[in-house]
Amino acid sequence: MSLKEKELMKNSPPCSSNSLSNYLWEDHPDEEKWADCVHCGMCLESCPTYLETGQEQHSPRGRVHLIKSVAEGKLEVNEQFMDPVFQCLDCRACTTACPADVDVGGLIEEARGQVRQAMPLKGVKRAVSSFFLKGIFPHQNRLQAAGGLLKFYQKSGLQKAVRSTGLLRIMPDHLVEMEAIMPEIHQSTHQKYKNVEIIPAKGSSKAQVAMLKGCIMDVMFSDINQSTINVLTHNGNDVVLPKKQTCCGALHIHAGDRETGKKLAKQNIEAFQDAEKVVVNAAGCGCALKEYPELFRHDPEWKAKAEAFSKKVEDISKYLYDTGYEKPQSAINKRITYHDACHLAHGQGVRHEPRQLLKDIPGVDYVEQPNADTCCGSAGIYNITNPEMASAVLERKMENVPKDVEMISMGNPGCMLQMAIGVQKYGRGGRIVHTVQLLDWAYQADAKKGVNDGVISEKEESTDRS
Amino acid sequence: MVLLAKKKKAQIDPDILALTKIVGSKSILHHKEDLLSYDCDGFTIHKAMPKAVIFPKNTDEVAAAVKYCANHAIPFLARGAGTGLSGGAIPLNNEVIISLVKMKNLLSVDYENRKAVVQPGFVNLKLTNSISHKGYYYAPDPSSQYVCTIGGNVAENAGGAHCLKYGVTTNHILGLEVVLPDGEVIEISPNGILDTPGYDILGILTGSEGTLGIVTKITVRILKNPEAKKTVLAYFDRVEDGSHAVSDIISAGIIPAALEMMDQTAIEGVEAGAFPVGHPPDIEALLLIEVDGIAEGIAEQIEQILSVCENHHVRDVKVARDEKERDRWWANRKTGFGAMGAISPDYLVQDGVIPRSKLPEVLKEIRNISKEYSLRIANIFHAGDGNLHPLILFDSRIEGETEKALLAGTACLKACADAGGSITGEHGVGIEKKEEMRFIFSDEELEAQTAIRDVFNPHNLLNQGKLFPTPSRCMDIKKVVNETSLTKST
Description:
The complex is a heterodimer of chains A (466) and B (490).
Chain A: H1 3-11, H2 31-35, H3 48-53, H4 60-71, H5 79-87, H6 93-97, H7 104-118, H8 123-136, H9 140-155, H10 158-165, H11 173-180, H12 189-192, E1 198-199, E2 207-211, H13 216-220, H14 222-234, E3 237-240, H15 250-254, H16 258-271, E4 278-280, H17 283-290, H18 292-295, H19 300-312, E5 313-315, H20 316-323, E6 335-338, H21 342-348, H22 352-359, E7 365-367, H23 382-385, H24 387-400, E8 407-410, H25 413-425, E9 431-434, H26 435-448, H27 458-465
Parallel strand pairs in A: 2-3, 2-4, 4-5, 6-7, 6-8, 8-9
Antiparallel strand pairs in A: 1-3
Helix pairs in contact in A: 4-7, 5-7, 14-26, 17-21, 20-22
Chain B: H1 2-10, H2 14-23, E1 28-29, H3 32-35, E2 52-54, H4 59-71, E3 76-79, E4 96-99, E5 106-110, E6 115-118, H5 124-131, E7 136-137, H6 150-156, H7 163-166, E8 173-179, E9 185-188, H8 201-205, E10 214-221, E11 223-224, E12 228-236, H9 239-251, E13 258-263, H10 264-272, E14 285-293, H11 295-311, E15 314-319, H12 323-334, H13 336-339, E16 346-349, H14 359-372, E17 377-381, E18 390-394, H15 401-418, H16 437-440, H17 443-456, H18 474-489
């Protein structure tokens, strides 16, 4: 232990409950969480990194054991401890498998917070991490600017040039793979609805919902945001996009930067203060918003606010399912499978709703894939920070995707990018789509056919069927 | 920093270097931080650090590593998923752990002759999942079957809920490939044909708790799915009524595929866990009863079971409506041990066996033990074959409570032994129950068994300190003396 650390310990003993503890900072992993774990091992086979390595320090119960050992003074927060804690994909599959509902995800994030304070990132890693996490994601304008650059890169012919000159060859493999599947950049909803207070429901309004635009979502996948708005308004919802909303903070929290996470959380809680419902179309963001109370477990005032806020958060598929949606008339004649985003299935327990949504679209030939709820390896920015493991996990995932599907539907942008890499890398067919896009396209087809203009009358419906 | 690293490298233990040569640098762990995850298995009361953990990929690597350890007098042991509940995979003597989780393939399936060959790290449930599309399954189903390995099942002679009708692991093993403690590889009944003349070596190895050899290939029996299956859930206001119902179901001539019981504390646990079913909190016992077989007789058996339950004042009894409901009931039961984490920071599970007819009085005795030690005890168990699992709930953070739990566990086993039963049904003896072996075996009987061990494992390097009481008798001490002189002479 360095002198400085010893000094720190003397001045502020944050772990007063356990003097042996080697966690030296506030907000350390919670004893109550690991006390639930009896080391039964039921989590092992659910964990992608354990399946890959076969090593228990890369399994949920192993990680919990290590986290507990640091608190008991048996281990120090060092490189060897950091590795298992940061190899975790944060996929939460263990939470589903665990008989005792141990909050492994929460423990991992708290432990990462300790690691990042004990061993701040250095050099290039630090620069890259703080550039994206602190410099870009939380700032709407900079994000838009980055989006603009990407758009310029695609439209100006630069992309073509880069691809044809072989400039990509000097980039690491995983970044080349990412460049190859970069989605086409459209105008963000942020810009499009800059001066709009409420996007009104088509037909009569039954509810008003607020939507989280997301940071990357609105730049890379603004068409999905547009589809979400279309589907919501189509089903009688007025949509507001609170101006002060920001990045959800999930990536920061996953990376151990809990302080920035808390700042962003506070901003969002305030931005959505007046909303009754907060609809989210990115599983990772939705899960993070729902877990805000965990961030403030030592701050009663904000904890209460976070609890009230997180109750309002709902994934788009669940919101539609719960409040009712119109079944489209136009067919999408495609063979489609569904991939469970970890933070939707394991994180929010949403499994049935998006599947039902797909099945309600005429013409969809739905095929279930084996192990649909295993991680694809995207895991926020994991595929950038741990490319090797991410690619092994992806390979396992792709083995399960039925060979003959034409589309793979899901509810999370990170998964969409990763699965797109998978499809490309393994030479597979299958267009990657967000579940809500399919519904939107079916509605649009309805509109073109004149089936409806927001509201279908009984008469029109019956003529279309006949 | 660089200098320091170099210095460290120079100091690496020659054994580690030699083992690294055998399995490769990616398949060995030897840093303290990495080893810590291996200081216990599903039995967490005793912890000890291994010297290293290696992950061989084939039988040759296992044999080479074993040979190295044998030649250098390094203690070693085998480990699968580490879900064992008696501490069989805990490295008490700073062992080299040979983890078999990378040997996890299904090698072949022979539907015609109803057998399959698997590697030891193959997960139990995966076998059923891999053959179910053809209408087959693997019968032994320990509650940890989602994760536990078949190699581990062989070592512990694992049971499970459905062993009442179909028998435990030993009844389903047709052949084994084993690395003996000196590194020699042998095959027992390689064609999977049983009833060969001579001693039943398969029988001796199955359930030997990793003290006789390391299994590297297993031929198992697979069964055709039963034509029909029905599951009943019955709630009783009094434990006694539930116990009597168990006896009467069996004496009515029905052999259920499974006949499980949970008491009130256990119900509190599973309902607080991840797979609640909605059992009423105020009942004293529930029975989960499953019958299977030819479709025809099933309805009649269900009728009989329902009427037995009625005769014993059942509060509520129902038949599972569909597969989904059945699965929910079973998930609730099978995750029962882990679910105790939701109501207690630690638990110790015991594994006694008693004659079915003694169920009410032994349960009463366990209640007395619970009072005496002022520790809560939950009971989840295979009532049909009298295999009790008292789960002693405690908090290791409270000083003295772990010791109290251990004593309460011993008292439970004593009660079972006194009732004419045994101290383990399926979890094995391991570290946990080795002293309690004396409840059911005399010194001479123990001696006879260690003599068998010595034939296979003469230097006792493989999984030392498990299964039998630690040297406290003159015969064991004699042996230690002999061994020391033997090691010296070699």
